[in-house]
Amino acid sequence: MKFAPFLNLLLCLVFAPLSVLGAEAPAEKPNILFIMVDDLGKEWISCYGAEDIRTPNIDALAAGGMKFHNAYSMPQCTPSRATLLTGKYPWRNGYVNHWDVPRWGVGYFDWKKRENTTFARLMKDLGYATCAAGKWQINDFRIEPQAMKKHGFDDWAMWTGYESGVKASAERYQDAYINTPDGSRTYKGEFGPDIYTDRLIAFMKAHREEPMCLYFPMALTHGPLVPTPDEPDAKTGAARHKAMVSYTDKLVGRLVSALDELGLREKTIVIFTTDNGSGSGIVGTRNGKKVKGQKGKESEAGTCAPFIVNSPGLVPSGVETDALTDFSDLLPTFVELGGGKVPEDLTVDGVSIAPVILGKAKDSEREWIMALGHGPARLDEKGVRGVKDFATRVIRDKRFKVWVSSEREIIRLHDLKEDPDEKVNLLGSEKPEHLKAIEKFRKVIDSMPEKDARPLYEPRAANPWDRKVK
User: According to the UniProt entry, where is the signal peptide (predicted)?
Assistant: First the structure.
């Protein structure tokens, strides 16, 4: 080899620009399609034992992929979304309770704060095209119409959330009020879930030659309970809920079919989950038992979400796993799947489960998982904060689970192997395995701050619709 060309090559390698996430990527980066249904427990997914409905498209993902049994969401909307977007638990990112920004005005998910860095921004750094469609609700698009772009999404079609004083914005289903890069408007005569799905499919077609990270936080199946285009005559709440679940399954099928038609199926990792349990007025049958919806509760039916991963050729098929994972793991998992590493100056609580998903490890690195965040947050003279200084939370491993009070005390211990319905409180037991579990979880609690963080955002001038401090 001649010296000059060799020297030039060496200099190129040494001084080549390094990504913030600089890590060796696979030869071909997989696409990621993350689907999250709103308000749906395992009792409404037939592959998890639901008996009142069939969900064939979701079931097919499980049969041809990996089904998790120990995956935690947070108990309610905002905590789940903020956790999965940032990789941080609610006690760290400040969203320890629900906070509906368009409706209440004050506070917002602030893209200017490094701590609020989303997986979308990191995936863009790795060369991914990014798109989101469905429900956001943690920014007010009247104030910042380009909030989604600033959070890292190249394209989007999001229900605005209910904007106080804008009656049309209440509609996420029929005549949906949707924000896109062109602004917010009513889509008269159209069914919102179809618009969100169409947007994702159009993005797939336009970016099929690039790696894509697609985020689909569905509007379905959250209330109001409505008829669907397939079942327009559904009258009762129960019939409408069932119709909405069936339509959810249909849309999952549409997305998978689009991947097939575009030749993207075998290089796309599809993840299906839900943000929390079903609404409290919804009752389903699972494995012979009636299950009342537990949205906003820290019970297993409120937090232990369906979680399915599928990709022919990348994800092993027909696998059921008891590996522990929760929503804080999603950001580092996406980054590792994209060939990167989480920046050293970005704190995350999650651990990548990419090795489990890809069949390179039989178990995750998690020794415990956690869920917290239910009920509405409140305002004080400093702005948005949690209801308590220390939010109640639940922590579990593969066998035991503890409930933790706002005084940082363990108030319940359950053996989920023997008592999956959490009826028997073992606190006070002298059995060695119970004492060992208490000691283990006590150390976890002691590792957390005594006071939860507040949401990070820069205060703005007051708007007429802002919620006032009581």
Answer: 1-22
pLDDT in tens, 351-406: 999 999 999 999 999 999 999 998 899 999 999 999 999 999 999 999 999 999 99
Q: What tokens were used for 298?
A: 């820290």
Angle at the Cα of 308 (from 325 to 324), degrees rounded to 5?
A: 15
Domain ranges of the chain: 31-367, 372-446
d(CA 323, CA 365): 9
Burial 313-342 (b: 16+ CB within 10 A, else e): ebbbeebebebbbbbbbbbbbbbbbbbbbb
For 359-431, strand residue ranges (E) read: 369-372, 378-380, 383-385, 393-396, 400-404, 410-415
Domain made up of 372-446: CATH architecture: 2-Layer Sandwich (3.30)
**Quick check: do 31-367 and 372-446 share a fold?**
no
DSSP, residue by residue, 270-296: EEEEESS---TT-EEEETTEEEE--TT
Identify the DSSP state of 231. B
Closest among 39, 50, 22 to 220, alpha carbons compared: 39
Q: Which residue has the tokens 């009513």?
A: 186
Task: Output DSSP code: residue 209.
Answer: T
As its CATH architecture, domain 31-367 has 3-Layer(aba) Sandwich (3.40)
Query: Can you give the pLDDT at residue 27?
Result: 60
426-464 pLDDT, tens digit each: 999 999 999 999 999 999 999 999 999 999 999 988 999
